[in-house]
Amino acid sequence: MTEKKIAVGIVQQQNTADIADNKTRLKQRIEQCAANGAKLVVLQELHNSLYFCQTESTDCFDLAEPIPGESTHFYSRIAGELGIVLVTSLFERRAAGLYHNTAVVFDTDGSIAGKYRKMHIPDDPAYYEKFYFTPGDMGFTPIKTSIGTLGVLVCWDQWYPEAARLMALQGADMLIYPTAIGWESTDTPEEKKRQQDAWVVSQRGHAVANGLPVVAVNRVGHEPDPSGQTNGIQFWGHSFVCGPQGEMLTEAPSDKEWCEVVEIDLARSENVRRWWPFLRDRRIDAYNPILKRFID
Q1: Is the pLDDT of residue 186 over 90?
Q2: What's the CA dihedral at 80, 264, 46, 14 to 10 degrees?
Q3: How far is the C-alpha of 280 from the C-alpha of 182, rounded, in Å?
């Protein structure tokens, strides 16, 4: 079988309140990935700024911007100049009072190949995303690029097997998860390990169940709570890439910034699906009840 290898660059960054500086450092690391052979570079969730969802403040809507807009122009130029596919994550202002958490994918010529609006929106302590984001209305649709078809999802989406499956059933070559997830300071070390292990194994499970590589890119570092009500979030990094059997190809540390390029052989998915034909054996005639909220 012909190999189809893609070098994927991952940028795990610690952000500050200085958006211009965050973007400058992202640009430098994207360029570093491209210099090391990356043809696809993936950034973390909401990478331009601090993770503003720790509090509910209408002032934070000032961070949102239209698509296309200033940030899409910025990242478009980078993708076009470097000849790479670039996966970004932006706070989209669609209209006054209507905002989305949106991944935008740029092709090698700098054009927008497509976008994905985050479908599953959490509402947990320090993750008040329902205040800011309208759930996506574009469905679970992969984005076609010149190097392959990308099943781009965002953070909370990564816990849902249905989202991964729908991307796979529409021809995604890989699953990509820009992420912002971390620990609350009062959690015990044992609880922190349980949470991180669950995060990793869930996504590796999506790789196995669908016979696809997974690229998960998380932010890293401590970000304080502007309200002072909590001790902030320690984002746990640990970005990783796994293959279609869930095998780990690379893992980032949990406590520092990280930038690396890893090679993925997309042709391997074909062989894995021949060995483990889960798509063949699906009982699509018996799955209708899954559309219910709960089966009483």
Answers
A1: no
A2: -100
A3: 37
Just list the catalytic residues: 45, 118, 155
**HEC per residue, 235-252:** EECCCEEECCCCCEEEEC
Which of 116, 87, 71 has its CA nearest to residue 9?
Answer: 87
pLDDT at 244 over 70: yes
Q: Say if pTM beats, i.e. exceeds, 0.90.
A: yes
Strands 85-95 and 98-106, sheet pairing: antiparallel
Taking alpha carbons only, the member of 142, 43, 125 closest to residue 90 is 43
State pLDDT tens for residues 31-57.
Answer: 999 999 999 999 999 999 999 999 999
Strand pairing category for 40-42 and 240-242: unpaired
How far is C-alpha 192 from the geometric centre of its chain's CA atoms? 21
In this predicted structure, the answer to whether residue 171 has a pLDDT above a threshold of 60 is yes
DSSP character for 134?
P
Question: How many alpha carbons fall within 13 Å on the CB side of residue 247?
Answer: 9
